[in-house]
Amino acid sequence: MRELVSDEQVAAYREHGFVRVQGVLDRDQVEHFRGSAEAFLKAHRAESLETQGTFSQLVNVWQRDDDLRALTLDTRLGRIAEQLAGFPLRLWHDQMLVKEPHNNVATEFHQDRPYWPHAGDRLPLSAWIALVDVPPERGCMTFLPGTQDRTGLQPQDLHHEEDLFEMDPSLRWIPRVTVPLRAGDCTFHSGYTGHMALPNRTDLARLAHVVIYIDAATTYNGAPHVVTDPLGLAVGDRLDGDTFPRAWA
User: Over 90: is that where the pLDDT of 88 sits?
Assistant: First the structure.
């Protein structure tokens, strides 16, 4: 896995709210982690949090599979994330995101951060790792550059193509950037950067492993979320400890 990103990539991330990093995983790593992900998906597909058929979403796989834990907690991946963010990070959660073959449904434009029960945090970011080739026809992501400063919106409906644009009509006219990925490539995007994923119209499942990082100072705001609901947290508690480990310590 690549050790660091360039100053140019850091600048691009901070300007646009996303950046592509090529070759984060080498070919052998891709084969290994893809096999582990496929096995985990086969065993746990029925546990998907997404119930409307847009994609399969399995959360906190690092806590249940040793191979995928090694990918989520890889210290070099965490170092890249911290270099892009510019401040200490912790793991929020990981997730497996799968679009099955011939799933002709888009994941509509949205931001990630409004879904999360966080307070006192600077910009979170996600590492979206392609475990198969993801050209546009297999469901790669499209970003709205520079929208990482659009905070304060309510959570958007992933199944409603107009929802984000009804909340902020100016976003409709921002030039969109579609980022195809080869297996082993990764995009990092801010939790406020508007983005969507295209439908998968191919014969192969789109398989991605996503690691989400938060500001190490983030606290819990009391809102419900599948990750924090079982933890018995009080409003104002820090999201730290073994459940939310440091990104590369």
Answer: yes
